[in-house]
Specification:
Blueprint: H1 2-14, H2 19-32, H3 37-74, H4 84-97, H5 102-118, H6 123-141, H7 148-163, H8 167-182
Helix pairs in contact: 1-2, 5-6, 5-7, 6-8, 7-8
């Protein structure tokens, strides 16, 4: 018994307990050896069940955190990025929740068109992003409280893009701007 207490005291010190903590923990630690095998199994079983119950919660929380991180990162993705579809989906959800967010999405798409043209991206990507812009702008224009300064911001970005774009892209931008002015 004395050797056991001495050994426990030594192990508690090695684990980082100070003298006062050792004095508090020693009676508890010495009781552990007196647990019956049934009590020890029960304690292990309780811990195992708790871990089994918490595992789905941990996986769910991890999945949600990872999903949120993916959405946050996708907000700065270029249309050439593999995260662009995530951006479009999250933008659509945000617009469903808060329709005025459509102005932000519209301005983001206009900036993306300008960025793609300046990076000499493929015509296919530029035209697809311009189509996304046109759809957002058309939907935003039909809203009762459309902010026309947002359209001016977009127009400036698209005119900058058109200035250095290929004739095909320049024509598409011009058509998009004209179609929005007549609606």
């Amino acid at each position: 018994m004395r050797d056991t207490r001495s050994q426990l005291r030594k192990e508690l010190h090695q684990a980082g307990a100070n003298a006062a903590e050792v004095d508090e923990l020693l009676p508890i630690a010495s009781q552990l050896s007196r647990l019956s095998p049934q009590q020890a199994r029960s304690a292990k079983s309780s811990t195992f069940h708790l871990v089994r119950l918490l595992r789905p919660v941990v996986f769910t929380a991890s999945g949600l955190a990872l999903g949120m991180l993916l959405i946050i990162i996708s907000q700065v993705a270029s249309p050439t990025s593999i995260l662009y579809p995530v951006q479009k989906i999250s933008d659509g959800v945000a617009i469903d929740v808060h329709p005025q967010y459509r102005a932000t999405v519209m301005m983001k798409r206009a900036q993306q068109v300008n960025q793609l043209v300046s990076e000499h991206a493929s015509s296919k990507k530029v035209l697809a992003t311009l189509a996304d812009y046109t759809a957002e702008a058309s939907a935003y224009r039909s809203m009762p409280h459309a902010n026309y300064s947002a359209f001016e911001f977009c127009k400036t970005n698209l005119e900058q893009a058109a200035a250095s774009a290929s004739p095909e892209i320049k024509h598409a931008i011009s058509s998009s701007l004209q179609s929005l002015e007549t609606t």
